[in-house]
């Protein structure tokens, strides 16, 4: 069964995937409004509501009825500067965003996690992502979609030398381990948002690539 989301809440609209997703949402005639809080102003659009400031500060101020929420928040250990700072974004802030989205009436949350997310992982990154997924499921969403992409491919504002080196190799890997273009992930997220299936759905990277074609 499919539905048409009308009012969207989007976190991470200036990120690699978030930019592609925002562009798609604003070009969908069925989307009434996109509420996208960001630190820096976005290009104006008649159907875009763009509060400016730190997301954690803005969350209590957000208002209006929301149908669907997308969380494209994400950082790296290097960008965050420490494990504590990374967890504050990729775990704590994601959960705070989800809680606020639910308060605003959203019944479907779509969140970008990561390949290998597992609360029992020995790797801090994967463990944090897994704990985030586990905590979101505990929020008891009517519909929760967790996307687990492999390495994201596409131009970024910030320089990530390791990703530049590994990106060509990631496209040669099999199945869910193969790299996925951010624009493909964005298309997949929108298609998943149109599904009306109660419960939790975890979508691995190989399925995301198929959905995003």
UniProtKB/TrEMBL annotation:
Pfam families (alphabetical): HIM1 (PF08732)
Superkingdom in the source lineage: Bacteria
Domain Semialdehyde dehydrogenase NAD-binding: 7-108
UniProt signal peptide: none
SUPFAM superfamilies: NAD(P)-binding Rossmann-fold domains (SSF51735)
CDD domains: CC3_like_SDR_a
Family annotation (InterPro entries): Him1/Fmp52 (IPR014843), NAD(P)-bd_dom_sf (IPR036291), Semialdehyde_DH_NAD-bd (IPR000534)
Gene3D superfamilies per record: NAD(P)-binding Rossmann-like Domain (3.40.50.720)
A GO molecular-function descriptor: oxidoreductase activity, acting on the aldehyde or oxo group of donors, NAD or NADP as acceptor
Name of the protein this chain belongs to: Oxidoreductase
Organism: Stutzerimonas nitrititolerans
């Amino acid at each position: 069964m499919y539905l048409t989301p009308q009012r969207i809440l989007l976190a991470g609209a200036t990120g690699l995937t978030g930019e592609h997703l925002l562009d798609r949402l604003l070009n969908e005639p069925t989307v009434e409004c996109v509420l996208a809080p960001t630190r820096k102003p976005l290009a104006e659009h008649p159907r875009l509501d763009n509060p400016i400031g730190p997301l954690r500060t803005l969350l209590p101020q957000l208002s209006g009825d929301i149908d669907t929420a997308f969380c494209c928040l994400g950082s790296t250990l290097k960008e965050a500067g420490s494990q504590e700072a990374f967890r504050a974004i990729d775990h704590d802030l994601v959960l705070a965003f989800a809680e606020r989205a639910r308060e605003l009436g959203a019944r479907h949350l779509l969140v970008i996690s990561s390949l290998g997310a597992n609360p029992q992982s020995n790797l801090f990154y994967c463990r944090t992502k897994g704990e985030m997924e586990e905590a979101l499921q505990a929020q008891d969403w009517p519909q929760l979609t967790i996307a687990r992409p492999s390495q994201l491919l596409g131009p970024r504002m910030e320089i990530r030398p390791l990703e530049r080196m590994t990106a060509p190799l990631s496209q040669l890997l099999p199945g869910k381990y193969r790299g996925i273009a951010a624009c493909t992930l964005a298309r997949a997220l929108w298609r998943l948002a149109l599904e009306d299936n109660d419960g939790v759905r975890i979508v691995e990277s190989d399925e995301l690539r198929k959905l995003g074609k």
